[in-house]
Design a protein that fits this description.
mainly alpha, Recoverin, domain 1, two-stranded antiparallel ribbon, 4 strands, globular, ubl conjugation pathway, ubiquitin conjugating enzyme binding, UBA-like_sf, DCN-prot, PONY_dom
Length: 299
């Protein structure tokens, strides 16, 4: 969305602040839609996250897997031994103190690699909790397991709100993700997670429901106007209400495509409070261009 000359300036400024090589600067800027402040924050956060990946001894892993297996078997579906289905998922969330209607379900589902709403599979469930550090302290019983899981959830939600780096998969050799933060990763994951099996797009009402959950936690969401006043990227509740009203009362949209879902997050980071800086020549989905035109007509 930015010119080659502008991109070069951003790379130079990134390198000047971080002392990172230009190829690293380019990767971070690309991952954060050329938003310099977000790219620098993500880079510095990762550099300070030396203890992000949990380290378990062989015995710690064995003990944790045993307790997690016991938990999974208690919650699993009666017909499929490798699946926790809806009822078991509700029980799990209740034990963790997580409201099934809250946004907390999405980062948890992301890390446990849930294939669909209300489902968890055995291998991904076990490895997901180990990935989040369950088992670093001794686990003597199921109550201690749940205590550690609740602690892990608290850390996950803090990281989600800060768009901190994604924790690599358990026993992976990869570093904490430099490509996107946890909020961004969860936002993108939600599209496939919420979509019905075999469907390419997300029904509009479902998309609006998940936007309602996710957008208030976006790094650019600006409840009180302080981000806009400071000249930082911002997207206000008023702008969200306009988007929702446009989709539900004015547009002919019935489903939301993956491109629209993904690009809307980038749009939030780029648009100004009065919708004056929108570039119609950029490769935005047509529904976003139509939305901006509609807003300008209302002003």
């Amino acid at each position: 969305m930015v010119s080659k000359a502008s991109r070069s300036v951003l790379v130079q400024r990134f390198c000047a602040v971080t002392n990172a090589p230009s190829d690293v600067a380019q990767a971070y800027l690309k991952a954060h839609n050329s938003r310099l402040e977000f790219a620098i924050d993500a880079y510095l956060t990762e550099q300070s996250s030396q203890n992000l990946v949990p380290r378990l001894s062989a015995q710690q892993e064995k003990d944790a897997r045993a307790q997690l297996t016991t938990q999974f078997d208690r919650l699993r579906d009666e017909l499929d031994p490798n699946l926790i289905s809806y009822d078991g998922s509700i029980t799990l969330l209740d034990e963790l103190g997580v409201d099934p209607a809250s946004v907390d379900v999405l980062p948890l589902s992301f890390y446990l690699e849930s294939p669909a709403l209300g489902q968890f599979t055995r291998s991904e469930f076990l490895n997901g909790w180990l990935r989040l550090g369950v088992g670093v302290s001794p686990i003597s019983d199921q109550e201690e397991l749940r205590r550690q899981q609740r602690q892990s959830m608290a850390r996950v939600m803090d990281a989600f709100r800060a768009n901190a780096p994604v924790v690599p998969k358990f026993k992976s050799t990869e570093k904490a993700s430099s490509q996107k933060g946890l909020y961004t990763a969860v936002y993108e994951y939600t599209f496939a997670f919420a979509r019905a099996e075999g469907q390419k797009n997300l029904p509009l009402d479902m998309a609006v429901t998940f936007w309602e959950l996710l957008l208030p936690h976006a790094p650019v969401y600006d409840v009180d106007g302080t981000k806009a006043a400071a000249g930082r990227p911002s997207f206000s509740p008023v702008q969200w209400e306009l988007w929702k009203r446009f989709l539900t009362t004015t547009s002919n949209l019935r489903v939301v495509s993956k491109d629209t879902w993904t690009q809307f997050l980038a749009f939030m980071q780029e648009i100004d409070p009065r919708f004056e800086t929108h570039d119609y020549e950029a490769a935005w989905p047509s529904v976003i261009d139509e939305f901006v035109a509609w807003v300008r007509e209302q002003q």
